[in-house]
Amino acid sequence: MEQIRKLKNMPRLNQIGFFAPLVTFINIAIATSILPNFDWLSNPLSDLGSWYRTDLGSLQILSAILFNGGLIVTGLLIAYVMIQFIKQSNDLPTKFGLLLFTGSSLFLVGIGIFSEDFPLPHLLTALPFFFSIPIALGVVGLAWLRLSEMRIIGVVSILFSLLSILIMFQPWIELSIAIFETLEAIVAMGWLWFVNYMHYAGKLAPVFTPQETQ
Hints:
This protein is mainly α.
């Protein structure tokens, strides 16, 4: 109850930052549960968003609505949060790193718009989304690493970036596409939650205008 009360008392921007990733995760959970033939070991998550498949279950259209809609809503909400963070920041390297993550969120929107039924546009949004995640997290981490007051936060951000790279190239274990996509999303959204909480707690004050971090 205490955590729920804290969440309710948060500024609207931070509430959105915590809520945004849940839209996609919840919708994916529902979509996979209503398609009995979806297999985590052989189907990519994008199969949930197909408008025309008939082999995964009779509720494919509902799955497509949930999956694609969830990606679009999450991406737009994250872009909104990042843009507000960029406006509040007084540090150019921080702005640049957050702008890169804004781009990642817009690629996520693109994946929702261009389902796997549109192969080329889907590929041109999906690949940049996954490759941009470690780059954005790493750039933000390096931007904060140069400031003594934010060194620990910068290290954590870089660790998120390295974890994303390890998942992407899978040096020790071969992951199915769906599991890889899910783990990459968890890393990106985990970083968002971390940064959002740091913002709420006032820990980003060195790179944000004081009046915005109160």
